[in-house]
Amino acid sequence: MTQVLRQLPPQPFTKDLLVGNESSDDGGIFQLTDDLAMVQTVDYFTPIVDDPYQFGQIAAANALSDVYAMGGTPKTVLNIVGFPIKKLGSEMLAAILRGAQSKVIEAGAVTVGGHSIDDQEPKFGLSVTGIVHPEKYWTNTGAKEGDVIVLTKPLGVGIMTTGIKRQVVTSAQETSVIEVMSMLNKEAAEVLQGFRPNAVTDVTGFGLMGHAYEMAKGSHVSIEFSYSSIPLLEGTKKLADLGVIPGGTKANHAWLEDKVYYDSGLTQEDQWILCDAITSGGLLVSLPAAQGERLIEELKHHRVPAGIIGHVHSKQTWCISVKN
After folding, report:
1. Which domains can be identified in the chain, with CATH numbers?
2. Which residues share a beta bridge with 200?
3. For labelling, which of 103, 177, 190, 212 has a CA lying 20 to 30 Å from the CA of 8?
């Protein structure tokens, strides 16, 4: 998409556009008044689980996450539907919409409408509008030397969902990954409001390494991760060793080949896990080291499985490095 956007003529300048498509951020922010700005984002995809209700929940949580990652509060959503209604029937689509609505309600937002088209392959997602104070929003740039890096959900979602499709995961593993994907980043974002993060994004399609690279590049710093500190869904390493790797994960790894340095003790499978293409992942936060442990304590108090997984350094030869 970046290559496509480069071919478009520049938009007329407006001081009210606080965050636009000139960066790789999670959404756009447009200022409405001195103390109110609008956050807008959209996301949709094909089913990654068989159960339509769960698919709706996951798709909604994934779309809502972008507003949370920018420090906003979701207010309204529009459903975006592509569906072969004659082939799959209205009951399945209704289940998808019910699943999404359950998460929209949990977020405290309302569904105000949507749009559907007849499509040969099911697709579903949301356009989300939220609000934020014009001086209190977060972006994926601004990480500073001395910061710690916090992650609020485990890795392995892409590998685990590929395992579901290949029928090589246990029922417990399937339940676990669906719970993680369905979990809103609402609690994490609300806790984070009590701190002063320098940069925030969520980990989705580009994987941990891809989103960390965008953060480091945009902040003109380097980030060092400790592999042993990064939480993984149970069974992720075993599946990776068996070759259960999504195509998107391998594409991420290839894209980042000259951008990430991996310690010699990390296997190819470890590297794929770090680049795993995730749906509805956690927040990736860069904040001053003095606030790190207190943030972790607050997040765990709210049952958010967070941990410190890395540190920010001045710009080095490698934008991202991972030690064993």
Report:
1. 2-132 (3.30.1330.10), 147-323 (3.90.650.10)
2. 285
3. 212
Query: What are phi and psi for residue 133, nearest 5 degrees?
Result: -75, 135
Distance between alpha carbon 242 and the CA centroid of its chain, in Å? 26
Under 8 Å between Cβ of 122 and 46: yes
- pTM given for the model: 0.94
Flag whether pLDDT at 209 surpasses 70: yes
Neighbours of 142 (CB within 10 A): 17
How far apart CA 36 and CA 33 sit, in angstroms, is 5
Structure tokens at 37: 């700005």
Question: Which whole-number Å values give the CA distances from 8 to 21, 29, 140, in the listed order?
Answer: 11, 20, 23
Q: Is the dihedral of CA 220, 221, 227, 231 positive or negative?
A: negative
Quick check: 1 pLDDT over 60? no
Tracing tokens 């967070």 back to the chain, one arrives at 306
